[in-house]
Amino acid sequence: MSRVIYLDNNATTMVAPEVVEAMSPFWGERYGNPSSMHAFGGQMHRDVDAARAQVAALIGADPGEIVFTSCGSESDNTAIRGAVDAFGRRVNVVTSRVEHPAVLGQCQDLSEHGVTVHHIPVDASGQLDLVRLGEALRDGPAVVSVMWVNNETGVIFPMAELADMVHAAGGLLHTDAVQAAGKIPIDVRRVPVDLLSLSGHKLHAPKGVGVLYIRRGTRIKPLLLGGHQEENRRAGTENVPYIVGLGRACELARTHLDDLPRLAALRDRLEQGLLATCPDSSVNGDRHQRVATTLNISFEYIEGEAILYSLSDVGICASSGSACSSGSLEPSHVLRAMGVPFTAVHGSVRFSLSRYTTAEEIDYTLAALPPIVTRLRAISPFVQK
Amino acid sequence: MWEYTGKVLEHFRNPKNVGLVENPDGVGEVGSLACGDALKLTFKLGSDGRIAEVKFQTFGCASAIASSSALTEMVKGKTLEEAAKITNQDIADYLGGLPEQKMHCSVMGREALEAAIENHRCGRSGKRVLTGRVVCHCFGVTEEEILRVVRENQLKTVEQVTHYTKAGGGCGKCKADIQGLLTRVAGELLAAEQAAHARSPARKLTNLERIRLIEETLERNVRPALRQDGGDIQLVDVDGARVKVALRGMCAGCQVADFTLRDVVQSKLREFVSEDIVVEDAT
């Protein structure tokens, strides 16, 4: 393929060249084990701690509250399981219907082991039903896990308000902030969540490294046992090159927060352009509480996978909530929870931008997509001429 | 991405026979917007009774569009009797294969074709109506349809049934029901096999087959026992029912050689080759 227009940054991102550069000494020259009792390994310990400080700075945390993991899913699983186990299981779990599978899978397993799990619904715009959340919190002490930003729609949950509600009810709040980091400012001093998950590869670091922020004083049982690393909070020799890369990526993400207005303008241009040129299309998700980089749009009468293959043929990468593109027969649980009609779910396409997205790429997509929609609609039996 | 063949991508990118035939002789419609795929097939017969014109409209993924396009190419020029014989596997084969999770696209093609032929013959509505007991309520799949697809494609697992018919792919509540249908078909197959076995009389073997079978029987059912005692056996000649063998090694000259020949070699050959065999000693 001669050119790739990558508009699937909520799936994964390019590793930033600065990150690659920061990681490069850690393969050959500086391969030591941070736990070693010699100066060579000891230096790696300092490198890991420097990265810890860089990550902490992105979210307003203390470096001692940062635990490195292998991925966002590990962070989510550790947070929920670890908090519930620390409570001795005499606790409810509260989550939403639109969470990432890593959260829903862990909650499912806990419910099979006797823990009560409440799934809070969302409204048509994808916003959490706070009345139902309040009811669930009155059911007893709870570990609450709700995402900060939705991966499919980009909708932002009101985390400060949620933290107040959960803490007033004596609960513990975990948030999957994998899609929030670098896309909205995060400050855990002002928005006092107790646990927070990050993933490296969603913010221009490599796949295979994540973070769990654990507020000082929060009791949590580790998932991986048998090592003193990360102050006994996560066993396993530190993945030094990736941790160093993630630190650098967080530093870059912080400086690029200034870039968000430009991305919001590009996203809006794409959104307005497609709505204007493609009849029977509609945007999914709260357009007022949404990150700058995500557009989820539905095209009636046609199916998402067919759109993705056609886009791929002209070098454009996106994703879809349709059943056929998910590998299962069920379309997006997020859009279904919002009550988006089946017709629109099957024809949904998600475009997600990054700081590397250019105006030229958006214009190319704006020119390429309408003919694809027209072609597929000409094949569809549901379009009445 | 799915592992689509070049043929699938070709039919997806440049589908053949898109649209609606004017004043069609048959119309078939299957699927719905809610299910995620749907197909409308129309055809017109020529004066020779063969399908002269056929067109499709499809809502669905790349392989659904490709399967529909392939189907129209396959039925063109066929009589309705010939067309009715097309199976979903034929459609998949025409495309060089489909990923198993996408086999339901080929089943949808076969169903639309059937509905269109039915519509032509009985004038019944071309919209496929569900007859019989509905097993999967999420995707509207009946017992009859599942049994048919299981039999035609020799499906063994619930997961395969989901790949081929979508049944069980929604809430999953009907999975036990589907397993029951699979068990029923497996039971039928077993019973049919046993009945066929009991009926067919043993065909007469050719001389060559007979000698081979004797050698195989000696190798499998006789030699291992003899070798345990340091002996062996050699086939010398076969003359009708008379089988001449020579005992070797420790068996040659053994005091119970007669017993070995009659109660081991002869009885095994009678069991596995033919009742009338007489073993002769050629040691």
Put the structure in a nutshell.
The complex is a heterodimer of chains A (385) and B (283). Chain A is α/β, with parallel strands linked by helices.
Helix and strand composition category of chain A: alpha/beta
**Strand order in the largest sheet of chain B:** 1-2-3
Distance between the termini of chain A: 36 Å
Q: Termini separation of chain B (Å)?
A: 69 Å
Radius of gyration of chain A: 22 Å
Helices and strands, with pairings:
The complex is a heterodimer of chains A (385) and B (283).
Chain A: E1 5-6, H1 17-23, H2 39-59, E2 66-69, H3 72-86, E3 92-96, H4 101-112, E4 117-120, H5 130-137, E5 142-145, H6 159-168, E6 172-176, E7 195-199, E8 210-214, H7 229-232, H8 240-255, H9 260-277, E9 281-283, E10 294-299, H10 304-313, E11 316-317, E12 319-320, H11 323-326, H12 333-337, H13 342-346, E13 348-352, H14 359-379
Parallel strand pairs in A: 1-11, 3-4, 3-5, 5-6, 6-7
Antiparallel strand pairs in A: 2-8, 7-8, 9-10, 10-13, 12-13
Helix pairs in contact in A: 1-8, 2-8, 3-4, 9-14, 10-14
Chain B: H1 6-13, E1 26-32, E2 37-45, E3 51-59, H2 62-75, H3 80-84, H4 88-94, H5 103-122, E4 134-136, E5 141-142, H6 143-153, H7 158-165, H8 175-199, H9 207-228, E6 231-239, E7 242-249, H10 257-272, E8 278-281
Parallel strand pairs in B: 7-8
Antiparallel strand pairs in B: 1-2, 2-3, 4-5, 6-7
